[in-house]
Amino acid sequence: MVSILxxxxxxxxxxxxxxxxxxxxxxxxxxxxxxxxxxxxxxxxTAKVHxxxxxxxxxxxxxxxAKQVQSEKQIxxxxxxxxxxxxxxxxxxxxxxxxxxxxxxSQFHLAMMLWPNLQATPNxxxxxxxxxxxxxxxxxxxxxxxxxxxxxxxxLNLYARTxxxxxxxxxxxxxxxxxNQPGFQSPKATGPWILAVHPGGVQTDQPEQAxxxxxxxxxxxxxxIKPFLKDPLDKGCRPALFAATSEDIVKExxxxxxxxxxxxxxxxxxxxxxxxxxxxxxxxxxxxxQDKLGELPYKIHLTT
Length: 304
Hints:
The protein is α/β, with parallel strands linked by helices and 304 residues long. Helix content is 42%, strand content 10%.
């Protein structure tokens, strides 16, 4: 489906409304934040841009950051953009597959911890950076146990599984809003608007992660596709920025959808629309988080 109002084009230089508020960048490495701030200087004053160190491979540190950001009473948009690419299997300090923890679990916790702030802000946005790679998730995926998550199923499958998880998360949250479940009772006309996006092929350091598991083949492959990858600032950010800032999200009531470049709403895979799979993921996510962090401030809500 293509937007009936303005087609499939979105130009951040023209289509983003005034964004004069505070911006918080969460990243593990300060140099990444410095690079972002330097680029933002091309678009205006960066005095209100702040950096907080965030290590998504450490659930307790992530929890501490979430509690720190909760002090921001108004959150207009939470963009969960960090992620591991197609790389080797590794485990975090929490004893979990790093792909699953970085790309889904820690971001799930951030989203849930900051959900009340989003609810308190009219027409706020929650945006998760997924990928069309979700189509390659193994059909055997059930999201029912930690041993399943901690099974090395290969670099591509590990990545694809987490990209599927992000869409399932978006759709599960939207279901809870539509059903007015406890903790998700918000006026539907004013959001929060929850969306998953696919950036397309983008020039980041993620493709380089394929070199370790695939060796020379990976190196050749990365070199071959590099000329076809989009600049992350000029092109790759468009779906996420459209989802996070465009007034058309509200006008067209784009809720719980999957958006591909620039602003095309499209159907995700059959797996991504599997309600039972989404509920399995939700249950497993909260069980792991409660085991690692103790009692959670948000309750377990399962769609029946």
